[in-house]
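Amino Acid Chain and Its Fold in Token Form
===========================================
Structure side: the spatial fold of the chain, written down as a series of whole-number tokens.
Position: the record begins directly beneath this header, with no further notes in between.
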Amino acid sequence: MSKQLTCIIVDDEPPAIRILEKYAEQLTGIGCIASTRNSLEALQLIERHQPDIAFLDIQMPGLTGIQLFKLINNNIKVIFTTAYTQFAINTFELDAADCTLKPISFDHFIAAVEKVKKQEKTPYPSTHATEDDFFFVKTDRMNRSKRVRITDVYYLESIKNYVVLHTENEQIVTYNTLKYFEENLSATLFIKIHKSFMVALNKVEKTDTNQVWVFQKNLPLGDTYKNAFFEKINQKKL
């Protein structure tokens, strides 16, 4: 039997709340446990009930839906609602489950909920590397090489004709290109985030729109690499 999803509806317009409450009653597999017109009260309700889904109107007095989104638990799937196309565009860079334009039809409501269900069912790819996984890199012109364990690498940095492998205890400099490592290291374990940086996915501490934190360093996240990076990150979200 599939899990019954719970939701909270936040909108400063009572008719919009009533429509979503009606849809939740009609659709099997989801139930509305609370609704409010007040975004500050919404924050308290969401923290108390920890719903599976929060329907958040974007334009509200007090806290906007986007501000509220940034304050709540990452495990809660957010579906934005708005009457304005430009506000919907502003949510594309956020990690929301969906954004629906008002007036919301029952079909669009169903589609948004199904997106959440699909995300919950998506299996997470393994990013596990064993202690025995290693490679050798050339460290000088004398053709000397150094053994590097994959699990030790936090991130790689390209500096002119060299690549620096940053580990917890040392920085290993090798005469090579970042493209070489991109082609030869597992894409399940590492991803390029900038023309000069690759990171180990299991070493990422936190992210925002333009930066990635690894080993207490904030690294730039290039526009070219954002979609692929956040796709990987989303696969690991609960």
